[in-house]
Design a protein that fits this description.
The two termini are about 50 Å apart. The chain is built from 25 helices and 15 strands. It is globular. Residues about 1-125, about 130-145, about 150-185 and about 660-674 have low confidence and may be disordered. About 45% of the residues lie in helices and about 10% in strands. By secondary structure, it is of the alpha+beta class. Helix 8 (about 230-240) packs parallel to helix 23 (about 620-630), helix 13 packs antiparallel against helix 14 and helix 21 (about 565-575) packs antiparallel against helix 22. Bound molecules: alpha-D-glucopyranose. Alpha-D-glucopyranose (GLC) binds near residues 211, 229, 371 and 373. One of its GO terms (biological process) is sucrose catabolic process.
Length: about 675
């Protein structure tokens, strides 16, 4: 009896559903008003998602489609609707305590608030969910005074000069300190003021910072620099955390989390569910059904609108890193413990740890999937992504709540961490000794015991590298693929390998040695070269596709990016060599404010403001500020870096003891489960 009732119910459910879908389909064909209606689009979204709500709702949707005014306060299924009807939340991603965007506004969707959801169908802008219960908008005024207080206390750092690649400590440090103090403070004040001016609000709440706020830039030349970029916000977020301003970071984390599970499509194809957007914009649009009112919507770009349609692989990794830093700096672990946040972490991890065809533990990505978001020959396994991947895995492991359902994921994560660190430390590392080894490689070794595993032809060692590799120091190469080593020095990947402890202590120190030795190439007149050397001539033509923005020694192709100062500073403090960062900051201070905080500099020695560089670029401002704040309070950098993990070190020792060069096959037969 019960069974037949259920059957009947499910049949009627199905019938109403089919009728509704048929009506919608018919309306598409006739391009009627019905299709343009909100409910019809929701129905289609549901059809695609195979999620069937109650029959009653279907009836209501069908009627609502024809006559929306009949149900002004109708309950809405948990599918976000966006003004252009392009995104929906995947039904499977819904969980209790998550917040749902509907009509662009954040709605608390926790089960305990379910009645609220049904009571109100009108969009009300809300905070991401206040932990403190303080939902007023006093955020903006308070940090000014707090920050002024902190900035007022800042004094100069140890000043050093680099000449011809060597460090010279000035004898009279006090003289330099006092001048640094006067000058430095005004720069920091300005940086802090500009950072505050770059804050973007959503429904009155600070949610991020705009990429650039150049008053001279207008119209079409703004491109997407008026958006909040996930990667660009990281130094802003770190600056706010260091200043004790936690709310904007918390809001950013929770709002971007909402965007994670929206459906994103490019020409009918949807990338993985855990993908985080590259950027988002707060748009003001007319309110549905009410021409006289407007509402704000968060409009994410997952790469579908980006130049070159590049996937922002780094966004989710940075998001995890910032989340951990938020917990460490604020002491508020309630954000990372939330179920929706835990789900968000797992979705990113699942996407990154999914099985593929790969032979390597490194993450396989397309060109332009990170800070360098144009074609620069970094497809495959670029170092920057690997360092961020490693860092995100370590941070996630720290934050994931132990529960039965995550055991497999945590096991996969641990195995990947070990394999990844072994792979990078062993195969990406070059110094003079290793280069000489590669120079003498035998090729075409078919065997499990091959020394030259990736069949690298020694001719790949370019003449520049033979001259460039210093006696003391080394670095991780940019990319490794079969028969291909990209020997370019990529700064962010190397710096973040130090910060995340992907590099050994010895390697970390050697990278800093190399930076000192190659000061005039990597810092020169403005820190810090994004990669060295530039691609020139035919190489530039073939690899960049003759990209006029990436001409030699410009932009991503050997340009200098002041934002990298903050990563340099964390790395230097971690390795107890802050004087290197102090010297780089000293160089930047000479002109960065006068130059109006450019996005990047051009030419071999970074003498020119970049050809198409935005001015008042927020992450240049924030990167500088974070560097200054950390030098003043080096202990705070602990909240950003990852200490070397003893378990990983043990596992790696076992691998090294097994002598992988001679017994490679046996080594990889082992599985390390921690
Ligand atoms: C450029 C940079 C990218 C940055 C964006 C916004 O596209 O390559 O890394 O996120 O500008 O500043």
């Amino acid at each position: 009896m019960e069974h037949s009732m259920l059957l009947l119910l499910s049949r009627s459910h199905r019938m109403v559903y089919d009728i509704s879908v048929a009506a919608v389909t018919a309306s598409i064909l006739s391009n009627s008003r019905l299709f343009r209606s909100r409910s019809a689009r929701r129905l289609l979204a549901l059809r695609r998602g195979h999620s069937l709500p109650l029959p009653g709702l279907w009836i209501m949707y069908a009627v609502d489609s024809v006559c929306p005014s009949l149900f002004p306060n109708a309950p809405h299924v948990a599918i976000p609707y966006k003004a252009r009807g392009k995104y929906r939340r995947k039904s499977g991603a819904l969980s209790c305590s998550t917040s749902i965007m509907r009509n662009g506004c954040l709605r608390d969707y926790g089960f305990r608030n379910i009645s609220k959801r049904f009571l109100s169908s009108k969009c009300k802008c809300q905070r991401a969910e206040s932990t403190s219960g303080d939902a007023n908008n006093t955020w903006f005024t308070e940090p000014v005074s707090k920050a002024d207080h902190i900035l007022g206390e800042l004094n100069g750092q140890k000043v050093v000069n680099f000449e011809n690649g060597s460090v010279i400590m000035p004898n009279d440090v006090s003289v330099n300190q006092s001048s640094d103090k006067t000058r430095g403070n005004s720069f920091e004040d300005e940086a802090w003021r500009l950072l505050q001016e770059s804050v973007v609000y959503y429904c009155g709440t600070p949610v991020g910072t705009i990429a650039a706020k150049d008053p001279s830039d207008s119209g079409s030349s703004v491109l997407n620099y008026d958006q909040v970029f996930i990667r660009d916000f990281i130094p802003s977020g770190m600056a706010f955390l260091l200043m004790g301003e936690y709310e904007i970071v918390r809001n950013f984390i929770l709002h971007t989390l909402q965007l994670q599970s929206w459906e994103k499509t490019m020409d009918c194809h949807s990338p993985g569910q855990g993908l985080m957007p590259a950027s988002f914009k707060v748009r003001t649009v007319p309110l549905d059904g009410d021409d006289s009112a407007t509402e704000e919507v968060l409009d994410p770009d997952f790469g579908e609108a980006a130049i070159g349609r590049v996937a922002p692989v780094d966004s989710g990794l940075w998001w995890i890193i910032l989340l951990r830093a938020y917990g460490k700096c604020s002491g508020d672990l309630s954000v990372q413990e939330r179920i929706d946040v835990q789900t968000g972490i797992k979705m990113i991890l699942k996407l990154c740890l999914a099985d593929g065809f790969d032979m390597f533990p490194t993450l396989l990505v397309t060109d332009g999937s990170c800070m360098i978001d144009r074609r620069m020959g970094i497809h495959g396994h670029p170092l920057e992504i690997q360092a961020l991947f490693y860092s995100a895995l370590v941070c996630a492991r720290e934050m994931l709540a132990p529960e039965d359902g995550s055991a497999d994921l945590i096991r996969a994560l641990n195995n990947r961490l070990i394999a990844l660190s072994f792979h990078i430390r062993e195969y990406y590392w070059v110094d003079k000794r290793k280069l000489n080894e590669i120079y003498r490689y035998k090729t075409e070794e078919y065997s499990y015991d091959a020394v030259n595993k990736f069949n690298i032809y020694p001719d790949q060692i370019s003449p520049w590298l033979v001259e460039w590799i210093p006696e003391k120091g080394g670095y991780f190469i940019g990319n490794l693929q079969p028969a291909h080593m990209d020997f370019r020095f990529f700064s962010l990947g190397n710096l973040w390998s130090i910060v995340s402890s992907l590099a050994t202590t010895h390697q970390s120190l050697a990278i800093l040695d190399l930076i000192e030795a190659k000061w005039s190439d990597l810092v020169a007149d403005m820190p810090f070269k994004i990669c060295y050397p530039a691609l020139e001539g035919q190489e530039w033509q073939i690899i960049t596709g003759s990209d006029p923005k990436n001409t030699p020694w410009s932009y991503h192709n050997g340009g200098s990016w002041p934002t990298l100062l903050w990563q340099l500073t964390v790395a230097c403090i971690k390795m107890n060599r802050p004087e290197i960062a102090a010297a780089a900051i000293e160089v930047a201070e000479k002109r960065i404010a006068a130059d109006r905080w450019p996005e990047y500099y051009d030419a071999k020695r970074a003498r020119f403001i970049g050809k198409q560089a935005r001015l008042y670029q927020t992450w240049s401002i924030a990167g500088f500020l974070v560097a200054k704040l950390l030098l003043k309070n080096p202990d705070a950098a602990r909240n950003i870096w990852n200490d070397e993990d003893a378990e990983i070190v043990n596992a790696l020792n076992i691998i090294v003891d097994s002598n992988p060069r001679k017994r490679g096959r046996k080594v990889f037969k082992k599985t390390y489960i921690i």
